[in-house]
Amino acid sequence: MKTLHCRDAGFDCEGVIQASTDDEVLTQAAEHAQTVHGVTVTPELAIQLKGLIREV
């Protein structure tokens, strides 16, 4: 299982995204960033986020 903690991306947020693949995590992270934080995930930001994804 892959996980991404929103706090690791620099947000004051307890959100944790979990999925089977990095791409699924990034898709969910983009939705979360837009709906919760009003941030659009650019290709550059996606690269940074991908580096924060951990295997659990």
Automatic annotation (TrEMBL):
InterPro entries: DUF1059 (IPR009409). This is DUF1059 domain-containing protein. It comes from Spirosoma soli.
